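Below is our example:

___
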Amino acid sequence: MGKALFVAALSLVLAGLGHIFLGLWRGLWFAVPSAVLLYVHFTGAFELADAVFMALGIFSAFDVFSFVRRGHGII
């Protein structure tokens, strides 16, 4: 249970980071858009970037948590 919570927390910091920590390359599908959204948020180019960033992080955290607990993720 501790490992699942740790990788879920990593995914809340930056979506996909928990997947990459586990060695799952599909984490890049979360990490790259998340990094772009984080950059867009700090430049102020898109007002809803922070909401989309958080939604992507929460989805990624649920996916990696279910992967550790059940052996397969949501997607």
